[in-house]
Amino acid sequence: MYTFEAIIIGQGIAGSTLGLKMALAEKKVLIYDYQQNEISSKVAAGIFNPVSGKRFTPAWRAMECFEELHRFYGKIEELSGRKFLHTKPIVRIIPDPGTGNDWLSRISDPRIAPFVDEVLDDVPGFNAPNGAIALKMGGWMDTKTYLHAAYEVLAGNGVLEYPYRMVEPEYVDGMFRIGETQAPLLIDCGGIYSMKRFPEGPFTPMKGEILTIYCEGLPNDRIVTGACFLCPIGGHRFLVGSTYDWRNIDLELTDAAKDDLVERLEKFMPLPFEVIYQQAGIRPSVKDRRPLLGRHPENPNILLFNGLGSKGVSTAPYLAELFMDYLYNEQPLPPEIDIARFFK
Ligand SMILES: Cc1cc2nc3c(=O)[nH]c(=O)nc-3n(C[C@H](O)[C@H](O)[C@H](O)COP(=O)(O)OP(=O)(O)OC[C@H]3O[C@@H](n4cnc5c(N)ncnc54)[C@H](O)[C@@H]3O)c2cc1C
Which CATH class for the 2-44+144-202+287-342 domain? Predict the structure, then answer.
């Protein structure tokens, strides 16, 4: 039997990021991941946007998250020799004059101001009669390349196992056992699959569909968001997304989602394009749209690092810092992300 400090289940964005942080801090950890193509982390557009939503709202702990994401992913790019983080301006088209007044009144908010690059009167090539606001420190991550880079770094440290099925740890004499391996702690980074192990958990999974289009003549140096986002990924291809559907939790590709995204795109992008690809995934979202970290209410040796919802790319590195402090330095988790908030 091989004994580790902790076993992590899942090598999506959550398990990769936490596993890398632990392995690089020389913690004796082992990650199990059943490789599947349609996990949320492989379908994600990978956009990291510091100020989003109709109300131009700063992301949760935006500066901490965005500083840590650039530092951490930059380090993994260096260690792996792979490029996956693409920092680009995010141009947010103002939908109407009323919303414009609202957004412009917010750009001096100290939580938003550091991310504002410039206010634009128009966006050449797009329908933007009310102008736009360009943001900095955002961009997109090629998530498949990140998972691959993480795989290489983790496998190089001997901490990764790819089983041919979902693993089901046994709990025997205070140890979680999988095959010939065991650990006193189990860290669940299983995304929506954690719901099976934790059916009473506060998950509200959210299906998303996303398109890849081919379009010549569009600039590829920025992400533009209007009624949806348009993110350049090279070779005249752009990601267009994404939908939010909490009713149909399946991986079916629907015409309704495709038509909806095409219609939204045509509102602000006048060039002809062709839809070349459509994908669906399920985000591991939580009732109150906050991450879900901390100890399982019934067995404190099971920890969750989950609930990354629609923002896994931007939050995972900072959340992993908080989680490591919680685990090794007895620092409490912020109450708004601690799973204890649901079990008082
Ligand atoms: C359409 C769409 C668009 C999105 N766009 C963005 C975006 O632009 N920006 C952004 O930040 N986020 C985006 N997201 C959300 C993002 O994908 C998630 O926040 C993130 O990927 C969640 O990662 P995770 O590691 O928690 O879960 P997952 O990606 O689901 O990974 C969980 C892993 O655990 C493994 N696993 C689970 N249980 C077991 C077991 N028992 N044994 C072995 N392995 C197990 C699974 O096989 C899987 O590999 C999007 C999601 C969707 C669906």
Answer: alpha beta
At 37 the pLDDT is 87
Please state the domain extents for the chain. Answer: 2-44+144-202+287-342, 206-283
**Per-residue pLDDT reduced to its tens digit, 145-177:** 999 999 999 998 878 888 888 999 999 999 999
Best mutation site among 146, 167, 193 for ligand 1 pocket (most ligand atoms within 8 Å of CB): 193
14: tokens are 């959550």
φ, ψ for residue 140, nearest 5 deg: -140, 150
Of all helices (H) and strands (E), which one includes residue 150? helix 143-156
* CA–CA gap between residue 190 and residue 176 (Å, rounded): 16
- Give the Å distance between the CA of 113 and the centre of ligand 1: 31
Residue nearest atom 52 of ligand 1, based on CA coordinates: 44
Q: What is the value of pTM for the model shown?
A: 0.97
Residue 162 is given by DSSP the state -
Residue 109 has pLDDT above 80, yes or no: yes
Q: Which residues pair with 294 in a beta bridge?
A: 304
CA 5 – ligand 1 centroid, Å = 24
Cα–Cα separations (whole angstroms), residue 246 to 44, 83, 226, 284: 17, 33, 22, 11
* Mean pLDDT in residue range 42-62: 96
Q: Is the CB of 15 under 6 A from ligand 1?
A: yes
**For the CA atoms of 320, 233, 160, 164, what is the dihedral angle to 10 degrees?**
120
pLDDT at residue 197, rounded to an integer? 85
Q: How would you list the strands of the sheet with 132-135, edge to edge?
A: 116-120, 132-135, 90-93, 223-225, 229-234, 237-241, 206-214, 274-283
Q: Which fold has domain 206-283?
A: D-Amino Acid Oxidase; Chain A, domain 2 (3.30.9)
Q: Of 6 and 158, which is predicted with more confidence?
A: 6
